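name: query_chain
kind: protein
chains: 1
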Amino acid sequence: MVNLLAAKTLRIPQDSHSLQEAIDNSERGDTIEVAPGTYYENIVLRDGRNLIGAGAQKTILTDDGDGAPDPIVQIDGDCLLKGFTITGARGAGIGHAVMIGRGSPKITDNIIRDNSYTGIGVHASTVLTSPLITGNAIYGNGGAGIANLGQFCKTKIVDNDIYSNTNAGVACTDSANPTIEKNRLYSNGVGVASKDEARAVIKDNVIFKNKLVGIPVIKNGKAIIVNNLIFQNETVGINLDGEGEAWIVNNDVKENGTVAITVKSKSKAYIAFNQLRSETTAGLQVRDSEVTALKNNITCELNFDVTDSPAQTNEKGETLKDVSFSGPGALSVKNSKYLAGGNKIHGKVEIDDVSKVEQIPDNELPSSAEEITFPEFDNPETAETVAHPASENPLPEAPTPAKEIPVKKIKEELPPSTGCLGLF
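structure:
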């Protein structure tokens, strides 16, 4: 236990010639205060230390340029990193500006920009690692803004501006289980990506104007996607591919380059209470997958027609004819299992005769998004305590259909813009 009464404050440059010297001479609970200036160091921030700059605009920490490339800051335990610009990390694939290996550090009020690869990398393959990353501007990095790797990674990413990163704004892979909440993610390669058994919780974010997809859930990735505003991404709003799984509830997905939500390649999705709008291709597109769609508003102006698929309703709540149309429109389903109820479709529908379509009775539908129960993703503290892998968490079961039949909002304000994972 840290003795707070004995904790001391070291000042740079008054008390030490370098940041690392001050860290090495400190003890758990001590604070190192860094005066304005530019510091050329690669440091290891040890467990229990607080490293505080004079403000991100005033205190700059950059690579020392010596030897093989290392992270500029390696965090080893429960620490505070606050008030710096961290820039200039070298080396593709290992050029993290900040790398976190264990503990529950807090990373706040920093600018992490223009590094050769990832801004912040959280690596948690053996022990529970749960940093809080909040109030930062993370931009212009050559890889992801923030990368989460490892089955014991439980990062909380809250209220950051994450933009203009080459790959993902936030990348989640290797069974990581981060929570991404109340961030602004824009002008990245993609907004938030979940792949390779990752289990991302994505809620209350604004995700827009990314160069590819707003949220890709791919390669056995999983995601809970709730109450986000997802718009003006250059291709798809939310894309499930390669056996991805997602619970998509109460989002506003609109004005993206092609489809609001696409589910394909043996993926599974539970989609409820969303506003899905496309001006070009489809509001909801399903290919070779399983989807439960309940109480969504699905709109596509292209090839507009109020006539709809079996047991759907129009925007006025009127029951529509059992007719399908070819070509793009509000809803397109091919070679898939599609369970639906209470959706309001504004536009044409395309459902092939191979797909299995089932209607959920009105009295078995949830009345609000708050009634929906999401899975809980396990995060054991060490590898020895692994009991139930994430892949065993099933999608919520849809209500049993009566019969088989034939075939919040976040303010929409644009923030100011500035110019080891692979591209998602």
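note: Residues 305-311, 318-327, 383-421 have pLDDT under 50 and may be disordered.
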